[in-house]
């Protein structure tokens, strides 16, 4: 089992999760985070930290696409270990549907 970040993170990018991760397996894109599925130790401490409920176990239905999504971008983006401010419109975008199609950017974040 591993944990993944889904599209609920897009355009919010809360980073509360990165501070509690004991293995630094979060990677930062321009407007979301992902978890490297091969580095995640399945401890689950990140899941309750996410205000957007974007971190889910891969054992839930239809998660395989998110495992591969997280794997792809964690290999392209820099690691993030320090909490940062969420994106400016995070509160308005939290819970919005269709964020993958509307807002997702493949561009890397700054990491750090």
Automatic annotation (TrEMBL):
KW Oxidoreductase (keyword) present: no
Q: What are the boundaries of the region Disordered?
A: 84-112
Q: Which InterPro entries match?
A: 4Fe4S_Fe-S-bd, 4Fe4S_Fe_S_CS, 7Fe_ferredoxin, Fd_C, FdxA, RnfB_subfamily
Q: Tell me, what is one Gene Ontology molecular-function annotation carried by this entry? A: metal ion binding
> Which UniProt keyword terms apply here?
3Fe-4S, 4Fe-4S, Electron transport, Iron, Iron-sulfur, Metal-binding, Repeat, Transport
In Pfam terms, one family for this protein is: DUF3470
Is Transmembrane helix a UniProt keyword of this protein? no
Task: Enumerate the SUPFAM superfamilies for this protein.
Answer: 4Fe-4S ferredoxins
Task: Tell me which Gene3D superfamilies the record gives.
Answer: 3.30.70.20
Cofactor(s) needed: [4Fe-4S] cluster; [3Fe-4S] cluster
Ranges for the 4Fe-4S ferredoxin-type domain?
1-30, 31-60
The protein's matches in PANTHER family, at most eight in alphabetical order, are given as:
FERREDOXIN, OXIDOREDUCTASE
Role played: Ferredoxins are iron-sulfur proteins that transfer electrons in a wide variety of metabolic reactions.
Protein name from the UniProt record: Ferredoxin
What is the species listed in this Swiss-Prot or TrEMBL entry? Roseovarius atlanticus
